[in-house]
Amino acid sequence: MRHALTLGEESFALVPSFISRSDAEQLRDLYENDRLFRSRIVMERHNFGRGEYKYFAQPLPATVQSLREELYRELRPIANDAMRAMGSDVTYPESHQAFLEVCFASEQRRPTALLLKYGPGDYNCLHQDLYGPVAFPLQATIYLSRPGDEFTGGEVVLAEQKPRAQTRAHVLAPRQGDLLVLPTRAAPRRGANGTYKVNFKHGVSTVTSGERFTLGIIFHDAL
């Protein structure tokens, strides 16, 4: 692992320069090779927003597989601590393959690593990436395009919903090669009266010019 990952009080972390520019461009170039993917989703058809993404097929490309396994190992202790703090007895096994076997037992067998592509006017509505009863509480996004040079707009929006409070928005502008770790659904937060759950959704604001590519790494597989 290139960086020691920790989450701050806001329950997410933006890690700069997690991968190099050349690695980002190599990952982005995979988008044109349809043999690597199991499906292509056009967001507008499903009222998800505008833009498109492709789910990788098995076997995943070696770089994507390595990133998924590395990040799982690094995030597993954080995930286990978060589940305990939220009052859950769910624990995650040491290896990602062992966790996938838990997914397989619930019929979640379709890989969920994906590449996303946005053009002018495209955006992604606020959502959560849940694909079945088994879910890992954290996920990751790696940014593959250069803001300002290759696209404008397209900021990341995280919506944080505390109990009995209005929604707070976090707006981030990651650079090429940056890594964002964020909650899949909820995160624990300490308050004056103990620990409570904060619900999260995430999306992408409208891209105003150019093309924006990202790699999404979700650790549970899909039904």
List keywords for this structure.
223 residues; Jelly Rolls; six-stranded antiparallel β-sheet; single chain; alpha+beta; globular
List the helices and strands and how they pair.
Layout: E1 13-15, H1 21-29, E2 37-42, E3 49-50, E4 52-56, H2 62-85, H3 96-105, E5 114-118, E6 123-127, E7 138-143, E8 151-153, E9 156-161, E10 168-172, E11 179-183, E12 186-191, E13 194-204, E14 207-210, E15 212-217
Antiparallel strand pairs: 1-11, 2-4, 3-6, 4-5, 5-15, 6-13, 7-11, 7-15, 8-14, 9-10, 9-13, 12-13
What is the 3D shape? globular
Distance between the termini: 30 Å
The H/E string reads EHEEEHHEEEEEEEEEEE
Number of contiguous helices: 3
Structural class: alpha+beta
| Strands side by side in the biggest sheet | 1-11-7-15-5-4-2
User: What is the H level of CATH, i.e. the homologous superfamily?
Assistant: q2cbj1_9rhob like domain
Percentage of residues in DSSP E strands: 25-35%
Could you report the average pLDDT, rounded to the nearest whole number?
96
Helix content: 10-25%
CATH top level is: Mainly Beta
